[in-house]
Amino acid sequence: MNEIVNAINSVVWSPALVFLCLGVGLYFSLRSRFLQLRHLPEMIRLMFDGKSTDAGVSSFQALAMTLAGRVGTGNIAGVATAITFGGPGALFWMWMVAFLGASSAFVESTLGQVYKEKINGEYRGGPAFYIEKGLGMQWYAWVFAIATIFACGILLPGVQANSIGSSLKTAFDIDPNVTAAILAMLLGFIIFGGVKRIAHFASTVVPFMALGYIIVACVIIALNIGQLPNILWLIIKSAFGFDAGFGAILGLAIMWGVKRGIYSNEAGQGTAPHASSAAAVSHPAKQGLVQAFSVYIDTLFVCSATGFMLLITGLYNVQGPDGVALYTGIAGVAAGPGYVQTAMESMMPGFGNMFVAVALFFFAFTTIVAYYYIAETNIVYINRKVNRPWLTVVLKVALMSSTVYGTVKTADLAWGLGDIGVGLMAWLNIVAIILLQKTAFTCLKDYESQQSQGIEPLFDPEKLGIKNADYWVERKNAAEILPVQTPQTTETNRHIS
Asked: At what angle do helices 77-86 and 89-114 cross, to 10 degrees?
């Protein structure tokens, strides 16, 4: 099984995908005049702007749902594996994916908002929706939807569950079979509660868990601040092949940095638009900017905290493509959460090991919940014209089964399957957003134009020549026929769903 998975991965994760991810991010950054820098203050402001409605969630809740999917095993175990197989320089390429990927995140999430629909009283959207409506290619939309259901419902949950089982076994000696049963019960309670329960759960747990982890990691880094300049120099040297010890794996540093960077922040992968489409906003570019900032939170904050902690303590391993050890700092421990647990335990005896296990539990569990929402949204897309309620039941059973299976199986197999899922979605989505980029940048230009005039940006697709944005056309028409009596009423009309 491992040989088959590795063979598929070598095709999916060919150098072409690595350079495509970096190249598209660079192109979008140049075309948008580096919106990820120009609009940084606006991103932060918009995070807390707006309120939820009966049909949609707030910008912050949508951000939390996205972060629930982004901040997961990739931020702890993923960083450890990237350093193991790509050396310290892999961390630099994770940063590059985050910086350039922020523009890709803007494009895909803005498109998700433009072409979203209101189905059964809830906002739904994502790549399948904008592929069908924006490109007029229903077959392509179905291919993406099926691939995403398969990836998020079956392949990816096992990676998160495996890390939970491994870390709890290390910290508390809990049998993985027991962990699997607990996860299945908790998942059942959350995923049978609908999108509102998922949004509430994510907006409550995600900020707390991410902030707590970053604070503890920063304390460890601060206690060893004298080593930080040397660590930064090691990362830079290794990233460009200048380090004597790791120069031979320059190509692997780039590949693993990009692979784990995309796995971690998901920029361009096509997962974020599902959650961002659920937000109730007055203009698609608003949520696009919010989602661009979420990439920074995931990789520049959380992943960097993990990477610095491993490199400062020296508790990591690096191996070459032939399996020969290039550096051994933690013998006998497999690449994954064990690195981070050992590193934190060495700095905080009696507490660090357990803290990482608890943090990883919340990180990974919220990611599994986010995977369910993404897969469910694609089932909703498939069911729009012919209702097949049994598909949702099958998805819930499949996701819970995948979680149980992943908890008790080997990490290598789980990560291999997860990489296939990420790679397939990335290929399909990146091609789509390249073809639809004009729509996203038209929205950005319109948003900036209205802002420069000092007015609250409102989206009118017909004025911009954007077709098939049916929700926004209906929203505009509904607002126009309602009487406007007071400023308060006007503001209310703007938020009509």
From this structure: 130
DSSP string, 207-224: HHHHHHHHHHHHHHHHHT
For residue 243, count other CB atoms closer than 10 A to its CB.
21
| Residue 406 CB-density burial (10 A; 0-12 exposed, 13-18 middle, 19+ buried) | buried
Tokens of 382: 């498939």
List, for residues 415-463, the tens digit of each pLDDT value.
777 778 878 888 999 999 999 999 999 999 999 999 999 998 999 999 9
- CB 320, CB 146: distance < 8 Å: no
Residue 319: what are its φ and ψ, rounded to 5°? -130, 150
> 131-146: per-residue pLDDT in tens?
999 999 999 999 999 9
> Which parts of the chain sit beneath pLDDT 50?
482-497
Which residue, among 78, 10, 41, 84, has the nearest Cα to 333 in the 3D structure? 84
pTM: 0.84
Q: How far apart are CA 451 and CA 321, in angstroms?
A: 51
Tell me the two tokens of residue 234.
């090691």
Under DSSP, is residue 453 helix (H, G, I), strand (E, B) or coil? coil
CB 378 within 8 A of CB 151: no
The three-point CA angle 54-59-61 to 5° equals 75
Tokens of 57: 């969630």
Query: Where is 297: in which H helix or E strand?
Result: none
**For helices 352-382 and 59-70, angle between their N-to-C axes, nearest 10 degrees:** 110
Query: Tell me, what's the pLDDT at 70?
Result: 61
pLDDT tens track for 235-253: 999 988 887 677 667 788 8
SS3 state of residue 122: strand
Measured between alpha carbons, how far is 116 from 124 in angstroms, rounded to an integer?
Answer: 6
The Cα 181–Cα 365 span in angstroms is 13
Q: How far is CA 387 from CA 148, 194, 322, 379, in A?
A: 19, 17, 51, 10
From the centroid of its chain, how far is CA 339? 22
Nearest to 135 by CA among 431, 425, 383: 431
Q: What's phi and psi for 454, nearest 5 deg?
A: 80, 20
pLDDT in tens, 296-347: 877 778 888 889 989 998 888 888 877 788 888 888 777 777 888 888 888 8
Parallel, antiparallel, or unpaired: how do β-strands 122-124 and 317-319 relate? unpaired
From the number of C-beta atoms within 10 Å of its C-beta (0-12, 13-18, 19+), residue 366 rates as: buried
Distance CA 202, CA 239 (A): 35
